[in-house]
Amino acid sequence: MAHSPLGRTLVIANPAAHSGKGATGAEFARHFLTSYASATKGYEIRLTASMGDAVNIAASAASFDSVLALGGDGVIHEIANGLMKIAPDRRPALGIIPMGSGNDYARTLGMKPNNVEGALAQLVRGHIMPVELGLVNGEYFIETLSFGLDAAIALDTTTRRAHDTSQEGEALFFTSGLRILSAGSKGYACSVSFDGEKPLELRELILAFQVGPTYGGGFKICPDASPIDGKLTACYNSKIPSIPRLLTLFLLAKKGRHVNSNIIKQRHLDRAVVTFSEPVPVQVDGEELPYADKYEVHVLPKALRVIMP
């Protein structure tokens, strides 16, 4: 086996991930790492029991060389936030074994989704790269932060998954999107300042800040975003479209072609300040973020070392 970057390894697994398949995935990871002893310098597997557990487990992982997140974007988000509590010179590298509905961070890194054996094979042959994180009001994000209708769609998919819908990934996001967007909206009044520039006064349906290109199980909201360019990428609407045009833009966003519209703007940035005068849906890596009057958004270049294929 080629040199493995894992070293002493901690696997943090969400047993409820992917409709309960996370528990089976964790057992497969145990079997794999036991069978291929040369892949690590010893390993431990810890299961989460409730939301927030992964943050605390990861925050106490300074004695490990790598932490592997087994689960969806939610548990990866928690683990990244936990790792950022560790001093940079002691912070383990992050690897992901994606087992979720959306798996957008897996797409960004090029990891095989919902395939534990395939993902582990990528990790043991992988290499470590420093990647950026986003930061909003003290919360780190690995892939996405969004406000408005797209956040409402993302949060609706989370609610529907909790009620055991048979849909997942792109199909789940698509059906939630059609339902919410068909109702129409006048947008949310907000002020946005990019990189200290004069604030823009907007009525936002979509305002997304991305580390990687996709959210919602593969919708390329910011097709030019990259986790290694040291920038966040923002996408927002400059005008309120009609409902038919809004639905068309939603369909085009699957392939990233919505950015060709003259009412959709995309830009790279280091920081932004977003203020709202009314409550607005907000999601970070697919999880609800509490409403605040002001959101301070920053990029942290090379903040986290990640094992990539």
TrEMBL record:
Lineage: superkingdom: Bacteria
Annotated signal peptide: none
Principal EC category: transferase
Names of required cofactors: Mg(2+)
Pfam families documented for this protein: DAGK_cat (PF00781), YegS_C (PF19279)
EC annotation from Swiss-Prot or TrEMBL: 2.7.1.-
Tagged with keyword Acetylation: no
Gene Ontology terms: cellular component: plasma membrane
GO biological process, one term: phospholipid biosynthetic process
Xref: InterPro entries: ATP-NAD_kinase_N (IPR017438), Diacylglycerol/lipid_kinase (IPR005218), Diacylglycerol_kinase_cat_dom (IPR001206), Lipid_Phosphate_FormReg (IPR050187), NAD/diacylglycerol_kinase_sf (IPR016064), YegS/DAGK_C (IPR045540)
Classification via SMART domains: DAGKc
SUPFAM superfamilies associated with the record: NAD kinase/diacylglycerol kinase-like (SSF111331)
Entry similarity comment: Belongs to the diacylglycerol/lipid kinase family.
Protein name from the UniProt record: Lipid kinase, YegS/Rv2252/BmrU family
Organism name: Lancefieldella rimae (strain ATCC 49626 / DSM 7090 / CCUG 31168 / NBRC 15546 / VPI D140H-11A) (Atopobium rimae)
